[in-house]
Write a structure and sequence with these properties.
The protein is α+β, with helices and mostly antiparallel strands. It is 65% helix and 10% strand. The two termini are 36 Å apart.
Length: 197
C-alpha cells in the first residue's frame, strides 16, 4: 500500500509539471491533432515515469545518540575492567545496560519525530475527499439544470435546452445550450458538441 501511495504522489507531481508545461506552451496551439497527441503521450509518460527506481542512501542513525551511547559504554567498560582486576571494588557509579537503554529511550522520547509520509498520505486523501465533494456538487447542479430544462431526443444524443443563459456544453450523451443559442445557430453548436461526444 505504501508503494502505491508513493507511486500516486510521484505521478501527481509529474502530471502537475506536465500540466504547467502544457498550459504555458501548448494551450494556444491550433494544431489540434498535435495537441491531442502530446496530451496522450504526456499522460502515458507521467504514468510510467514514477515507476523508474532512483536509489537513495538510507537515512543514517542519529549521531548525537550514537556518541552518547558510545561514551556511556566506554565509561561502563572502564569501571568494569577496574572492578574485575580487583584494583577497585565495584563502584556505585557503574552504568548498567538498563540505564543505557533508559537514556536512549529518554533521548528518543524528547525528540518528537514528524512522520512526513503519514502527513503526505493524509493530505492526499484530504485532496481526494475535497475533489469528490466538488464532483458531487457539480453532478447535483447538472442534474438540477437538466430537470428544469426541456429535453429533445436527436439521433444518438439528447438535446437539453435551458432557460438560463449558459455556454453550450456536452456531457456524455447530453448536449446543453441556452434557448437563445437554440433559436439563433443550433446546427453549428450541435455539430461542434457532437464532435466532442
Amino acid at each position: 500500500m505504501e508503494d502505491f501511495i508513493i507511486y500516486l504522489l510521484k505521478a501527481t507531481i509529474c502530471i502537475t509539471a506536465f500540466g504547467v508545461f502544457f498550459r504555458l506552451l501548448l494551450m494556444r496551439e491550433t494544431f489540434f491533432r498535435f495537441t491531442r497527441f502530446s496530451l496522450l503521450i504526456g499522460l502515458v509518460v507521467c504514468c510510467i515515469l514514477p515507476l523508474i527506481k532512483i536509489e537513495i542512501k538510507p537515512k543514517s542513525f542519529d549521531t548525537g545518540n550514537f556518541f552518547l551511547i558510545e561514551y556511556l559504554t566506554q565509561i561502563n567498560n572502564t569501571f568494569s575492567d577496574l572492578s574485575s582486576s580487583n584494583k577497585v571494588s565495584t563502584p556505585p557509579y557503574i552504568i548498567s545496560n538498563e540505564e543505557v537503554q533508559a537514556v536512549m529511550t529518554e533521548s528518543r522520547s524528547e525528540r518528537k519525530e514528524i512522520n512526513w509520509l503519514n502527513i503526505i498520505v493524509y493530505l492526499y486523501w484530504l485532496g481526494v475527499a475535497l475533489m469528490l465533494i466538488r464532483l458531487g456538487i457539480s453532478l447535483i447542479r447538472l442534474q438540477t439544470l437538466f430537470k428544469k430544462s426541456r429535453v429533445i431526443k436527436q439521433d444518438n444524443h439528447l438535446l437539453v435546452i435551458c432557460k438560463e443563459d449558459i455556454a453550450p456544453f456536452s456531457f456524455f450523451k447530453y448536449i446543453a445550450m441556452s434557448e437563445e443559442d437554440y433559436k439563433n445557430n443550433p446546427v453549428e453548436i450541435i455539430l461542434h458538441e457532437s464532435i466532442h461526444i
